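Question (not urgent): is this output format expected?
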Amino acid sequence: MSDTADRLDPMLLEILVCPEDKGDLDYLPAEGVLLNRRLSRTYPVRGGIPVMLIEEASTVDETELARLIALADA
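Got this back:
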């Protein structure tokens, strides 16, 4: 879980995209990640800094993806 120090500036969120497919990302502050729904991938947010390196991304399975999408859509 992430704390309030990991919250990202809304202006930054407007310009952040996935480094691989250049698509939009969902920010899940409680999870401390940025989510790419299309690639089933999350990018960590550490100390309020998004880590936008493909090598640092995690691929999630279908169940975890569904859970994260539900959180993003809530």
